[in-house]
Each structure stands twice: as C-alpha cells, then as structure tokens.
Amino acid sequence: MSFSLPALQSNETLSRWGRALRLHQWLKNILLFVPLLASHSFTSLPGWMVLGLAFVSFSLCASAIYIVNDLLDIESDRAHPRKCKRPFAAGELTPAAGMTVAAALLSASAVLAALVGGGFWPWLAFYFLLTCAYSFGLKRVILLDTLVLAVLYCLRIVAGSGALGQELSFWLLAFGVFLFLSLAYVKRYAELQVQNGSPGKVTGRGYVAGDAPLVQIMGVASGYAAALVLAFYINSDAVARLYDFPEFVWCGVPVLLYWISWMWLQAHRGRMHDDPLVFAVKDRASLIAGAAFAAILAVGAMGPPW
Q: pTM of the entire structure?
C-alpha cells in the first residue's frame, strides 16, 4: 500500500493538470493545417514540419490562457452545474500553481513561435491578446462574445497560412467565419439550455435564459450561410484550378447542411457538450459526415475510383 498510494496521488495530479490544461481542446488547433490541405499541398514535408511546431506553440499558448481564464472565473464556475468540477473551482489545484504553470507554458510557446518564424508569431500574439480581452470582459458582452469566439477559431486558420507564408483564401475565411459563428452560438445555446428556467442573467454571461430561441435562430442562420458560401465557392474559378472534377464537390453542400442541422438538433435536445468541436469528434454522425465530406473533396480532386 505504501508503494501504490504515491503512484495513485501522482496519477490524480496528472489527471487534474490534464483537465486544467484542457488537452482535449488542442483538437481545435488542427485548424492550423487547413491552409495546407486546402491548397492540396499534401506532400510538402517542410509544410507539415512547420505546422507541427506551430501546432505545439499554439496549443501551449491556449492552455496557458485556459488556466488564466479558469482562475478569473473561479467564483462563477463554482455556481455552474458542470464547470464547478474544474480543478481550480473544485479546489483541486491552487491558483499559485496555476499562474506558475501558465507562465512556463507561455514562455515555451514564445520560443517555439520564434522557431516557426514567418507570419506565424504576429497572429499568435494577436490570438493571445484577443483571448485575454475575451477572458477579462468581452465574454460578458452579449453577441460580441460569439463574434470573438468565431474570430478566435478563424485565427487558427490565418496563423496556419502565416506559418506557411501562403496568401489567405477569401473563400476559406468567409466560410470559416460563418461556420464558426454558428458553432459559437451552439456553445452559448448549450449553456442557456443548462440554466433553462433560471431567472436573470446566466452566470458569467450577458444572456438570460429566455434568449435561447433567438440564439438558436441566429446560429442556424449562420450555419446555413456557411453552406451558401461553399456553394458560391464551388461555382468560382478557384475550384476549377484545384479540382479536376468540381461537379463532385457539390455533394459536399448537402453533407454540410446535414451536419449543421444535426448539431443544432442535438443542442435543442440538450445533448450538446460545452464545446461543439469536442462533441463532434466523439459523435458518430459527425464523424461519418466529416469522412463523407473529405471523401467528396478527394473524388473532386482526383476523380472517381472507377
């Protein structure tokens, strides 16, 4: 027992820090690779290596900000039915340890960003500043908070383009803004669903529970606007340059419409995770839709297998 107890405590501590760093949220940073994939530069080994460093740098920076955000939100998190289980809100980790780890993560992120070079580090710095502004107050400003969340998602794509030294595609940015705005509204709607029926403002937010139907309408509209942007993109000259069989790419529009509708249906039924992307990577229907969308783009680029 004397040998197993320290090991058990060590595992529990690692688990707590893993939750505090929100390692599962690193999945969002895969968006850094989108410019490489969108330009069909699949075989560019230097590109993959540069974006690999950028991914780690971005992830360390994001984890540091998550710690700071949790420290700022300790009181409101303790009043939340799910967030009260976060390590700092639950008293499992101390604020002093959190600040020390956050500073170390930011330092490591800055070193890696310098190694990436190019146009990556200015966008990482902008992401850091905007996220800090969000944590310190913008997240409490109704409607502006969702716009900022959408921009933060898009900044990952922009930073990926900067790391590669590529010109950012107008179509990719327009598509991302509407899609991520819809996901930001999903996130807020899920929070409102948890506190449905509670009077007054939602804890730590500028919304009241009665705002849920309007948030739902705006979110669905934003998601369908992303599908419309995709349809316009398919009819553009850019698709003709990148895809040998652009007619197949049209099949991606109904797949996207299905997935957006599915996500909002799950949110309406109260099944949505606090983060829609985390929900998506665990949801079978979302994974199938993602695989189908990727297969459609592959067929459009290379042609059917027959």
A: 0.85
Query: CA torsion, points 113, 30, 129, 272, in degrees to nearest 10?
Result: -160
Contacts of 158 (CB under 8 A, 6+ apart): 123, 168, 173
What is the distance between the alpha carbons of residues 69 and 48, in angstroms, rounded to a whole number?
31
Longest dimension (CA), the chain: 69
143-184 confidence digits (pLDDT tens): 999 999 999 999 999 999 999 988 888 899 999 999 999 999
Structure tokens at 168: 């950012």
Dump pLDDT digits (tens) for 81-129. 667 777 777 777 788 888 899 999 999 999 999 999 888 999 999 999 9
CA angle 72, 158, 148 (to 5 degrees): 35
Q: What residue type is 240 in one-letter code? A: A
Query: Which is nearest to 195 in space by CA: 79, 299, 46?
Result: 79
The encoded tokens of residue 224 equal: 């369908």
- Give dist(CA 147, CA 151) in Å, integer: 6
What burial class does residue 25 get, using C-beta atoms within 10 Å of its C-beta: 0-12 exposed, 13-18 middle, 19+ buried? middle
Task: Give the 3-state DSSP-derived string for 54-80, with helices as H, strands as E and coil as C.
Answer: HHHHHHHHHHHHHHHHHHHCHHHHHCC
